[in-house]
Write a structure and sequence with these properties.
Seminal Fluid Protein  PDC-109 (Domain B); 3 helices; FN_type2_sf; heparin binding; two-stranded antiparallel sheet; mainly beta; FN_type2_dom
Length: 143
């Protein structure tokens, strides 16, 4: 990314602050307010909803194209989302690309909300209802 200068008045003196994209907690947000596209690919993982991955400030974002890696188009999500599935993910040293009922005594489908359940122990049920993302990518929410 290209850097940019911000001139700021502070106690009568001007300071030029150069901020390069590598110093920010993520890429610059696109100016256009395009809608989120689900699912989308970011760093070879499939996301079915907003995520904080790739950001150090904890803000939720989404891609505005199906492949962030290619298009580099994204926006902040308007509100924090519930945890969403990340594909592929690792569970018991096995790679999963869809929801699974493995390990669930109740037989319900679930997925990891990070790329490695074995390390992070973060997950959610897949049969989420009442969410636009779930409707848009229903095929990802069923085993």
């Amino acid at each position: 990314g290209e850097g940019y200068n911000i001139m700021k008045e502070y106690t009568g003196e001007s300071f030029a602050i150069t901020m390069n994209s590598f110093l920010l907690s993520g890429p610059d947000e696109n100016v256009e307010s395009l809608p989120c596209v689900f699912p989308f690919v970011f760093k070879n993982q499939v996301y079915t909803g907003c995520t904080t991955n790739g950001r150090s400030d904890g803000r939720y974002w989404c891609a505005t194209s199906s492949n962030y890696n290619i298009d580099k188009m994204w926006r902040f999500c308007s509100e924090e989302s519930d945890p969403t599935c990340v594909f592929p993910f690792i569970y018991k040293d096995k790679l999963y690309t869809t929801c699974t009922a493995d390990g669930m005594r109740n037989g319900r489908c679930w997925c990891a909300t990070t790329s490695n359940y074995d390390v992070d122990k973060k997950w959610t049920y897949c049969n989420i209802t009442g969410r636009t993302e779930a409707v848009a990518v229903a095929k990802y929410y069923y085993c």
